[in-house]
Amino acid sequence: MKKIKKSDTGHEELFCNTAPSGKYSKAVRTKRVYVDEKWCLGCRLCEYHCAHANSSEKDMVRALKDRTIRPRIHIESDEHISFAVSCRHCDEPICVKSCIAGAISKLNGIVRIDKNKCVGCLTCVLVCPYAAIAPSEDGPMQKCELCTQSRTGTPACVMGCPNQAILFEEVTG
Amino acid sequence: MVKEGQQGNRIPSGCAVSAVFQKDGRRRNGEDIIRSIGLMHERSNGLGGGFAAYGIYPEYKELYALHVFYEGEKSKERCEEFIYQNFEVHSLSKIPTRKISQITDEPHIWRYFVEPFRRRLYESQIRDEEFVSRFVIKVNTEIEGAYIFSSGKNMGVFKAVGYPEDVGEFYRLEDYKAYCWTAHGRYPTNTPGWWGGAHPFALLDRSVVHNGEISSYDANRRTIEMYGYKCTLLTDTEVITYIFDYLVRRKGLSYEEVAKVIAAPFWSTIDEQEEAEKAELSYLRNMFSGLLVTGPFSIIVGFSGGILALNDRLKLRSMVVAEKGSAVYIASEESAIRLIEPELDKVWAPLGGEPVLFTLEGGAR
Amino acid sequence: MGIHYLYPDYEVLRNFDRCIACRVCERQCANDVHEYSVDIKKMAADDTKCVNCHRCVALCPTRALKIVKTDHAFKENSNWSAETIQEIYRQADTGGVLLSSMGNPRPLPVYWDKMLIGASQVTNPPIDPLREPMETKTYLGQKSTKIRRDKNGKILCDCAPQLELATPILFSAMSYGSISYNAHESLARAAQALGIYYNTGEGGLHSDFYQYGSNTIVQVASGRFGVHKDYLNAGAAIEIKMGQGAKPGIGGHLPGAKIVGDVSMTRMIPEGSDAISPAPHHDIYSIEDLRQLVLSLKKATNHQKPVSVKIAAVHNVAAIASGIARSGADIIVIDGFRGGTGAAPTRIRDTVGIPIELALAAVDQRLRDEGIRNNVSLVVGGSIRNSADALKAILLGADAVYIATSALLALGCHLCRSCHSGKCNWGIATQRPELAKRLNPNTGYQRLCNLVHAWTHEIKEMMGGMGVGSIEAARGNRLMLRGIGLTDKELEILGIRHAGE
Questions:
Q1: Is residue B180 annotated as part of the catalytic site, yes or no?
Q2: Does domain C10-96 have CATH number 3.40.50.920?
Q3: B118-145, pLDDT tens digit by residue?
Q4: What is the value of pTM for the model shown?
């Protein structure tokens, strides 16, 4: 069920390929955010940059001071390794199939949530294998949309990572 | 007033050069060369001029002709004593000159036809050329007020502070006959005040006239001084002459090979050559890296039986070469050639870094 | 103990208006300076642990932090500075030798800053580096001026083995053990990309880096760590380390705590044992012994590789260099007293040795006076801080320069001089995997390449200004330098004239 493919830089990428055969189109060549666990320091700057990018404030202090952040990328770690996880924009996204309100769709290779249609049932949160979806501050679910809707326009986690552990690249094959 | 070359006083200058070479060995007097260099009057400022002539002493052609400047009697005495200790002197005299108003403050100018004592040569276990070159350097560094400015066989340098055409008249060059003439007019940026600093510079039978100012000067000087040479004048011409003496006489390189050292092609050019040529160019450039000359230069090297013209790789100074029959002309400007030879068989400007070499048909006499 | 003699030198200043309590400072400080108090929801800092490495400052996303020198002061005293007093307190506490890292920080003269470079004007045109070739290619090795010809009269082009460099800059020796695997990988990859060389230092060569062998100089130091036949043949050249500028006369010391895993394997010593390099090589007690080692290394590598000898700049460096130039060595490396180190006794680092500018000038002149300058190439280091220093070194007579501190700065070092603690926050001078991770060689090697490219470009601009189109015409070209604010004696030793002359 899980197929492992290599991207241009050799990073391994986990795809979900749940359809029996040919029901969804083949992988669209789109850039995705990849994390190399070799270099991830678990510093969580990606989380703060993500939260800032998805806020309406230009100044980070005004955006984030005295707030609990709800980033769309989050660090998973133990004492030996850390890794930043965000939506994989799967070839055949389970969340799209699971959404009872039809709020989640895939357009141009990017899985998006229509906030106006989300009814808050949390099904997508449960089914996502990466725990990439979570409720936003004002209710509807939110997840990484590759900063296509954010203030920066290009993935803020990539720009904010101090150790080049997060890359924005196309996948091969 | 610090003398040129003393206490590190280095005087850069701009110049004019000209040369006439007869491939058939026919000897001409100095009138043409004087006119040629005289045409380029504006390139000089009257503070230095000189000539080198080859084949002018056929009756003494086996002897070294030493031309010496003396500032006073004392220097003359000391120097002559040293000469007599080391050489058999066949003839000596003042160099004949003509009194003209444009040339003033001349030192005593003497000429000696000498050969090294056989016994001295045997004792020192060196060849006569090495003996003479060491002697000349020793006199010029150690004997105050004496300066040997020419030391070759059957050739001579004539120089002074003044415009070259005046210098030519002063030395009565119309009375000499040579198969090769080189000439130089100097535009120094300071007042040298001392005749030894004028050009050409000569050691043994090699003379160099040079238009340019080499940026690699000190790198070259500190390299060549490792081999026993002493740069006392701190001029480009001096160091270039020493480099030629070292590479040709002591290392046995041909003139074309010397050009590959001092005007080595760019690495990108070397990379494009065939393997064998590439290896030789890389080898010469690397082994003699301290003798690479950068900065503008346009040199004419005279030697017994031949003449070489060479420009720097970036061709930052002018140089024109022309031929008519057996006569070869080299000058900073074509007009200086046309003045003495209006009709030419061919005329061209050599490429930067490309040596142009002419020798006497049938070798040196 | 209830009494505190040593007040922290540096204080962490946090602008609470800007702090968003993201806690990245807390997560990234290896010295546990920062801590988040959950109850009052505020960050706090413990100045006593701060080493002023700037990791937290560099990572803080809102620039809320800065480190300042404490204004807690002793009474003013020109003889007894605060530092001098505190050093005595430390020694009274511990009874130990004071240890320091990196190069001599004392306010002694920096001669690079007192030399000015010439330019050509009017009588001689400067050259435009964008339009004319400007060549920085350099060869290191013995230059023989003997001309031999084959039977056809063609010159025979065999010469002693040479190292070819695209630019006259190399990465100096820093051992694996004193710096991390990732730092070595960055240096090796950058050396390869740039067409120059890096030096293994005395820690041996990790098997993963043999692939960069043609851009590696392998070092043989007094402890002979990691030296075996494959090691000698893996590099492009071999360097015998006789001395180091930061600590002339003594050997190296890497504490057992840093000898773990791959470090231990590469050095060929047991884990946890202190790696102590003896002061002399115990088989080199004289110049003739050195000659023997040079020749045996050449034999072991079939005369295919140049052998270099590295010495510290000390009082009689010119005479020593003269001896080495006659020993068969191809390259002499001179390391000045400002050279860096992972750890050295403070007194030795600060007071032993002489400036590289003077040592270089003296050695180059002495070798020329003796007519043997062509026997060796000269490489100098300790410390070359920018392209102007590098060019001045070449104008004084060097063939190339070694950079180490500059390279580490490019990799992220902030010169906090705490390398000996093994807790380098930048992942450079540490063996702890969680810290070494912070130096990503993909970034590191790129930054090193950027630095050397930038310096090379600047060197070309300065060469163009002088009217010199090829670096070999700048080598030893002392007339292009002028001193400023130097005494007659200093000018004499440097072999340059004063500005205005």
A1: no
A2: no
A3: 988 888 889 999 999 999 999 999 999 9
A4: 0.91
